[in-house]
Amino acid sequence: MIAAAGGAIEHVYFPDSGLGPIVVVSPEGNKVEGGMLRIARLCAGSR
After folding, report:
1. Can you tell me the distance from the alpha carbon of 30 to that of 5, in angstroms, rounded to the nearest whole number?
2. Tell me, what's the pLDDT at 47?
3. Tens-digit pLDDT profile for the chain (47 aa)?
4. Among residues 8, 7, 17, which one has the least CA distance to residue 44?
5. How far apart are CA 1 and CA 16, in angstroms?
6. Would you list the DSSP string of 8-37?
7. Are 26 and 10 in contact (CB under 8 A)?
């Protein structure tokens, strides 16, 4: 989990590539994957 809704932010991440799930939680506490997040480098930098 990167962050919980309403919780304190303890760390900040700046990934430049990868995939991650978007998880949806119902009021009853059931969890389901609602989608995928694709992170791609948007600008060219020197590496």
Report:
1. 16
2. 53
3. 667 778 888 888 777 788 888 888 899 989 999 888 887 776 655 55
4. 17
5. 18
6. PP------SSEEEEEEEE-TTS-EEEEEEE
7. no
Give dist(CA 38, CA 22) in Å, integer.
10
Among 39, 31, 27, residue whose Cα is nearest residue 1? 31
Tell me, rounded to whole angstroms, the distance of Cα 42 from its chain centroid. Answer: 17
The answer to whether the Cα torsion of 14, 19, 22, 23 is positive or negative is negative
The tokens describing 1, both together, are: 């989990």
pLDDT of residue 27: 92
